[in-house]
């Protein structure tokens, strides 16, 4: 990827520079007999030739793409136009285009627009076009007969907008490339963590509870660290996508899969707002924490993601001991449902709903329904 997103514009502008130079040469030859000081005009045309060559090379290779060169080009273009008052009579200047032609002078406007954008291009167009009007001694408001300023301003505006669009497009491509590279690295690290550390922590947690006694404390520590590590992997995934303002919710939830946790999600990415994805992922992690600490030994959890266009539905179900009738209401009265309140609070802050369904001996199920916004391109492909 080129380091200068407007390099093609710079190179294309030099083709126009060459054509405008040839036009200026033909114009200079054609008006030789009409000039008051043709010798001075030929000397100035020699300066113009050297400057045209210098600008063409400097802009094409890149060394001249700065305000020193562009500023000098505008000054020289205006100076050449002002010299018309010396090399030609007042009546000739009034009835002809300013020497060394409007087309050649437009190169300075285009250079300013490429470097500075549409506003700078318009200002340069007004400045160079205004110089032509000054040489003639008056400003013809009949732009149908004399459109010099209109042409220059329009050129500066159009080329400036093209330059801004090119820079914006490259910035978006660069952000996407960085996000893709970070995502690929995260996926690699996630696989290594999942196949190594997470599996070991999960095994220690499971075996520690089976053995019981003093090892139960070790099992609790292992379970806590497993949950923290899964949350860390999920947070990295959100940060990766948030450069573009979106994240793949399916990938986030798959990061929570492991021994005792099965995740089912659509094969295609579920791209939603990164903040929304972060909150949903955190709510799911909280629900899985509940399974680890309250569902009983050997309990398995099942996470299901459903993509319904304008909403997503996430279900977290376990096959643990469940909650006996009346216990949930009693815990509410005693203020002992912090995790449940956290889940509900997160989802309701997104404009969604979270419902809990549980009974003794049949496990527990959370169902979270959240309205989502999607990237424009993602909606178009649905």
Describe the structure.
Strand 4 (301-307) and strand 5 form a beta hairpin. This protein has 14 helices and seven strands. Helix 3 packs parallel to helix 7 (118-136), helix 6 runs parallel beside helix 8 (148-211) and helix 11 packs antiparallel against helix 13 (338-349). It has 382 residues and is α+β, with helices and mostly antiparallel strands. The strands form two sheets. A five-stranded mixed sheet has the order 2-4-5-7-6. The protein has two domains: 6-173, no CATH class; 246-371, Histidine kinase-like ATPase, C-terminal domain (Heat Shock Protein 90), CATH 3.30.565. 66% of the residues lie in helices and 10% in strands. It comes from Gordonia otitidis (strain DSM 44809 / CCUG 52243 / JCM 12355 / NBRC 100426 / IFM 10032). The chain crosses the membrane at residues 40-61, 68-88, 108-135, 147-166. One of its GO terms (molecular function) is kinase activity. Residues 279-373 form the Histidine kinase/HSP90-like ATPase domain. This is Two-component histidine kinase.
